Amino acid sequence: MSNEVKCKLKINGLVYNLSIPSDTPLIFVIRNNLNLKGTKLGCGLEQCGSCTLLVDGKKTLSCNQNAIDFEGKEITTIEGLEVNNKYSLLQEAFIEFNSAQCGYCSSGIIMSLTSLFNEKNIPTENDIVKSLENNLCRCGSHHSVLKAVEKVISILSNEKVENQYE
C-alpha cells in the first residue's frame, strides 16, 4: 500500500492539486480523478500506444508511469488538442477520412502523430512509420490514418509555400 501524496499537475493548461497514492499511474489520474476519458488503457504494459499523451509536446505513454513524476511538466491529452471549440488539423483529417473505426486506438495514434508534427512540420514516410510503430490498431484503419496524415501534410506544405512569399 502506498502513501498519499500531494501532487500538482498541469493538464491541458489547467493546474490540478491532487491527493493521490504515490504509485498511481498518470492514466488513472487523468481518467478517474479528472474524468478525461479520451486517453485509453489498452495493454497496461506500454506496448499498444492507447495511453499515449504529450508531455512537454513529446509522445509519452501514461499507463505505467507514476503521476507524481510529471509535476512541473505540461501534459496534454486528446481533449487538450481542441482549441476554442475547434479540433486540431489532424483531428479534422481523422474525421474526414473516417480514420477511427472502433476508436479505441485513435487518441493514441493522434497523440503520436501530433508529437511527430511538433518535431517535424513536414515528416517523411519513414518518420510517419516510425512514429506509429508502437501504436496498435486491431481494426486495420491504417490506410485511412495514412490518408489523414497525407491530407495534413498537403495542407501544411501549401501553407509553407504560401508563407515563403509573405
Outline:
The chain is of the alpha+beta class and 166 residues long.
Give your account of this protein's structure.
There is one protein chain. The protein has 166 residues and is an alpha+beta fold. It has one domain (4-164): Beta-grasp domain (Ubiquitin-like (UB roll), Roll). It is 37% helix and 16% strand. The chain contains five helices and five strands, in the order E-E-H-E-E-E-H-H-H-H. The protein has a five-stranded mixed β-sheet, covered by helices on one side. Strand 1 (4-11) and strand 2 (14-21) form a beta hairpin. Helix 2 (89-96) packs across helix 5 and helix 3 crosses helix 4 (125-132). The protein is globular, with a radius of gyration of 17 Å. The protein starts with a strand and ends with a helix. The model has no long low-confidence stretch (mean pLDDT 93).
